[in-house]
Automatic annotation (TrEMBL):
This is FG-GAP repeat protein.
Length: 291
């Protein structure tokens, strides 16, 4: 005979299940935080070619500008405050435009952290515009509202040893080249549950160059490959947006630099604040993570 479980008992079991899943996510969240990318800048030059490297150090690094996207986030990840005015990059009938945008930040339940239904530690970021911005930026007097020349605005993943050619000048087929170079293959001697003994650690350099013989290394990173395949918890770098945000006739980039699939680390690179013999300068970063 099939016994029907009382409603209260089912509710207690459901609550226990949800609580168990939430606790598991919290543990995983802590482990993910150790995988955030670390960045800083060092440089070197030569007579024929200039190379500048963005290498790993302690995270986080402070930046002169603020970067934000819309959506729901863990409370400590949001940089914007309600009532603030930012500049948002929007796709409009005129093209891509930087528009003054009022930010609204509402508290919402964070289903990873807020085990108590009455608590709301998460934050939801929205704007007063009808359409959604590609990203929001604040803190630069040299960024003005108006049309922004855009090469592309859809995420493009980068493949090692293949070049992404970009052009801001319609008369030139390729003003800039973005590439990931496989620097070396190292046998990974550390055995773990996720990565077996046949796993290799590969070192890569994410770089951008132009036609004036300047090449700049934006990021150095490592990926673990097993049988020449990237593990499911890893992802390659990607370019989210490319164009001329500061209108100086030179390329600007918004890149995703996090290597872990559960972490997002959007970094905005602009050309106008770049120092001598450099193409770009990192000016803002927005880091988030999931469960």
């Amino acid at each position: 005979m099939l016994k029907i479980m009382p409603n209260r008992q089912r509710e207690r079991l459901s609550y226990k299940a949800v609580r168990t899943i939430a606790i598991f996510c919290l543990v995983f969240l802590g482990s993910c935080s150790d995988r955030k990318p670390d960045v800083s800048i060092s440089s070197q030059s030569s007579q024929q070619q200039t190379s500048t490297s963005l290498l790993k150090t302690t995270y986080p690094k402070s930046y002169p500008l603020k970067l934000q996207t819309i959506g729901e986030f863990h409370g400590n990840e949001v940089q914007a405050k309600s009532g603030e005015q930012w500049l948002g990059l929007f796709a409009t009938p005129k093209g891509f435009e930087l528009l003054p945008t009022k930010i609204m930040v509402n508290t919402v339940r964070d289903y990873v952290i807020d085990l108590d239904e009455t608590k709301k530690t998460g934050k939801k970021v929205i704007t007063n515009q009808k359409s959604q911005p590609i990203f929001l930026v604040k803190g630069a007097a040299y960024l003005k509202p108006g049309i922004v020349k855009t090469v592309f605005s859809e995420q493009q993943y980068l493949t090692p040893n293949k070049v992404l050619n970009l052009s801001l000048n319609s008369a030139i087929d390729s003003d800039y080249q973005i590439a990931i170079e496989d620097k070396q293959n190292l046998e990974n001697k550390e055995f773990s549950f996720e990565r077996q003994s046949n796993t290799k650690t590969r070192k890569y350099i994410f770089s951008v160059s132009d036609n004036s013989s300047i090449s700049q290394n934006l990021q150095e990173f490592q990926h673990h490959y097993s049988n020449n395949e990237l593990p499911s918890d890893r992802k390659p770098p990607s370019v989210f947006w490319a164009g001329d945000l500061d209108r100086d006739g030179k390329l600007d980039l918004l890149i995703e630099s996090a290597s872990h699939a559960n972490v997002s680390s959007l970094t905005l690179f602009l050309s106008s604040p770049a120092k001598e013999n450099k193409l770009l300068e990192p000016v803002a970063q927005f880091v988030t993570q999931g469960c």
